[in-house]
Amino acid sequence: MKKITILVVDDSALIRKILVEIFNSDERLEVVGTAADPLIARDKIKQLNPDVLTLDIEMPRMDGLTFLKNLMRLRPMPVVMISTLTNKGANITLDALEIGAVDYFAKPVNDNGHQLAAYSAVLIEKVVQAAGANVRTFDPSRFQPRPYEEQADIGKLKPDTWIAIGASTGGTEAIREVIQNLPAQMPPIVVTQHIPYEFSGSYAERLNRCCSLEVHHVVGGELIQPGHVYLAPGNAHLRFARKGGRWVCRLDEGERVNRHRPSVEVMFDSAGEAIGRDLIAVMLTGMGADGAEAMLRLRQQGCRTIAQNEESSVVWGMPGAAVALGAAVDILPLQSIGRTLIKYSH
């Protein structure tokens, strides 16, 4: 089997060394080169034609974002960003995902213990998935906020309906694509995206700026109401509970489910228990299978279920798993999901 070839781009010799050791420890991967800055990387991409690039954000001679824009415009390829888990790092990483990076990971620590082994396993899987990802050319118009433009009368909102959206790899952009094409007159929308806690607040703010709905980074206790979006924080499952006859958000910092916290499985199950067949469940692009079995249970109880199709997904893991189980009523391209949600909820 042909190995996945990787070019590691980072100005730190120590980080380059750690990453090379991690990648070369897996028989599916081969590091074919390293570069200390983007200009060296540019030449090595032409020379080595790697399958995947890992790219540091802050480097000499040219920053990672500028290089990424040029790369995704002229020679789109799978790129995984190396990020810091800080507020500044969150915004830069989210910019990189907008530009076209497939995924990101935190800088490794020079630790030979259990923590590094777990980190290595996740990182290797991210790179393997990135190698098979659908990569898009950079389009500057994607940066422009495009809140929903009111069309002809869309009808009256159905009472008691909720929408639940789950996503992982590629999901930050897919969720934005769906939500910014929705009117303010929508049911409550609850969202679980696999994302670090350090990033989820910044992501909620970005969503809020680009759509007609009110987006909340859930802290617990928020009243569920139409016209609002509720994003799970990156360190807790999103559940729902009754309070004074109304539904509110409840956070659960318990065990990981399907290796994730927040987990799409937990949110789908809790939303289904809350409102039954009035739920519309959506599975967007993502690695793994989190939420697929819960989506099947939702379909079996009469809910509308939608999976993003393979052609428009960055990684067709989670939606593909849902389709394989027979959990999806509809299998749709990303650009059709927003208008389908409008139709089903009115």
Short summary:
It is found in: Cytoplasm. It comes from Gynuella sunshinyii YC6258. The protein has 346 residues and is of the alpha/beta class.
Topology:
Elements: E1 4-9, H1 13-24, E2 29-35, H2 38-48, E3 52-56, H3 64-74, E4 79-83, H4 87-99, E5 103-106, H5 114-131, E6 162-167, H6 171-179, E7 189-193, H7 197-210, E8 214-217, E9 228-231, E10 237-243, E11 246-252, H8 264-275, E12 279-283, H9 292-300, E13 304-308, H10 318-325, E14 330-332, H11 334-345
Parallel strand pairs: 1-2, 1-3, 3-4, 4-5, 6-7, 6-12, 7-9, 8-9, 12-13, 13-14
Antiparallel strand pairs: 10-11
GO molecular function: phosphorelay response regulator activity; protein-glutamate methylesterase activity; protein-glutamine glutaminase activity
Active site: 168, 194, 290
Catalytic activity: L-glutaminyl-[protein] + H2O = L-glutamyl-[protein] + NH4(+); [protein]-L-glutamate 5-O-methyl ester + H2O = L-glutamyl-[protein] + methanol + H(+)
Report on the structure:
The protein is elongated and about 60 Å long. The longest helix is centred in the middle third of the chain and has 18 residues, at 114-131. The model has no long low-confidence stretch (mean pLDDT 93). The chain is α/β, with parallel strands linked by helices and 346 residues long. α6 links the parallel β6 and β7. The chain folds into 2 domains: 4-140, 3-Layer(aba) Sandwich (Rossmann fold), CATH 3.40.50; 145-345, Rossmann fold. The chain has helices at residues 13-24, 38-48, 64-74, 87-99, 114-131, 171-179, 197-210, 264-275, 292-300, 318-325, 334-345; strands at 4-9, 29-35, 52-56, 79-83, 103-106, 162-167, 189-193, 214-217, 228-231, 237-243, 246-252, 279-283, 304-308, 330-332.
